[in-house]
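User: Fold this; tokens only.

Assistant: Input:
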Amino acid sequence: MGMEILGGRRTLSLDDRESLFRRGLKEELARATEHITAPHSADRPSPIQHKVLAAAYRAIARIPADASSIDAAVLDAVVTPDWSDEERRLLRRALELIVTPACVSPTTAIEALAEIDAPTNEGTIKDARAQILRGYVEAQDRAELINHQLIQARGGSPQWLLDDIFVAELRQNAVRYGDVPAARTAAAAPASTTVPLGPVEPVVHSIYLTPSTMRFSEIIGPTLQSLKDKNKWKDDLRQRTAIAERFAWITGDKPLCDYSEADIEAYVKAMRLMPADMRYGRLGQSGHMAVPYNPAKLPRATAENQRDERSINRDLSTLHSMSTQLAKKEWRSRFGKNVIEMDFKERMIAIEDDPGDPKRMPWTPEHLRVMFSLPLWNGSEGALARLKTGTHLQVYQDAAYWAPLLAIYTGMSREEICGLEVVDFVFDCEVPFLLVQANMTRSQDGVTPGGLKRKSRHRVMPIHPELLRLGLEAYVERIAEEAGYHGPEQIIPIFPELYRDDAKRVRVVPKEELVAPELGGKRFYKRAWMGIVDVTHSIMPLPETRSGKKADFHSTRTYTQSMLASPEVSQTLIDRIMGHAAKGTGPRKYNRRALAVGEVKALKELLDLLIKEMPVVTENVQRAQSVNLLHLKQRSRVGSAPGRDVNRYFLLSPSEIQTRKEQNALEKAATKLPH
């Protein structure tokens, strides 16, 4: 006993065994009832199948995981005299083809022990394997109860079979639909004591501590709002709301007490079947989601429009955040407050990057030279005609002019660039620089500075000489003068058109939801970038992935990283420019070079790197003689290139545009034909 105390606990506790049993029960029950939760992909099992599989699991629990055969004595021990020859034959076949001794391996047992922080040794590994198999046996026994009248009266969901109390009630009452045999349990009551069923009582049985009959759709708004307040999410909850509504739609928008892990599996399977470009509409209001989910009436994904598994993982991450919030009350498990019954993260898809098929293509110097040869940088006719040439040519400066330049020569992200303030720029020093920092322009609540994706994004960036040559300092000074700059405490965004007051008016959409306005980077993207990148693509087709994803604004960061990734360049310097978190204890804890050698020297090192490795792609862009500003309402509105309509034919080739026009004409003509 003294050795055990010194060496720590070496056996499993009752709680450990219960957790392992519960794991096996949930895993096997999902498989045993797949014909209920995923009828499109599984055959309906016969009642005898559950009986045979339960006996098979009992058999392999009696032998080691590496056993090569099963003795006849083991089979005799798990069957009863009333088994028919056919049932015994099926049992032997199941042990040959379906259930093998290795179906719960020592590795599986070790992983299960690690999840519950239980001791791992030869004895506990054997014990864990036995407990998981015990759960498998119980799952197959319970699966026979799925057609019980009490379950059918409550919607027929297999999740009722996870409720131990409710299962005990079912086994006490042998009344079934059809010819499903009574549950095989020693606790079953004699037939004479069976009480005939009367009207179904309004009693809710659930795997949750306090069963809630609220439907999932009813808690979407309040739950997301609570998470937004807690985690300081951005105001725009449209994407998260759309994800939650899709989950409600696919799973039947059931009462919260009816949800189980089987619904997560059903959601993942359904999303894989639907095309990535499908428009869902709003739950119960419009589009496909105006009517109940019916996969037979929906388009199916093809090789060309198959959904990216990263987008499915994004959905699961959002839903898991909601689940952890609901687990405090509506989805709090009756088996322990720390048990997450609806664990969406467990269903996340492991994704391995393929170097031969990157998810985002970088820009190339050639494409960038084409872009900076556009009239926007060399002379255009003004607002909504910045991509066209004419008789009265002029270069105007705003986010449309400067944001792409800053992206190429700094590696900053779209939101970082569009949210810069006048005080973020320092020109009157040995090495002119700009600060990437949290500020009030990008504040979420109007009280505390915001805008940094993570702490590592806070950085000091030397300003590339090409930006200075093109007149960045004069532009910042002109914006400061326009706003009446009088001190560093004043909040002046360098692209004020992206944060205009008229853009902050909240729009009301169905269900009375408050929708965040398009500000900053989103406003720049819609007003300027779409037109810029569209006309560039029409001149020189953009780089694209195998799936057809073309280079976008974020691809400028990929471009910067790629240009800097010379074999001679330190990864630490690249991380400082890109704002990536340092990896390893040394870089994270001890690398304080700017403090050790001085900020000026550290900035010079970064500037030398940028000058050496970043190609100059604006050599043909002339510096404007003066800073010309359009009226605030007209800034960063570039319009479409001649012969193109960016709002209707974004990033399409001329042949694709012609095909689209012909299809639209045919559809329009078809609507005028008599029925």
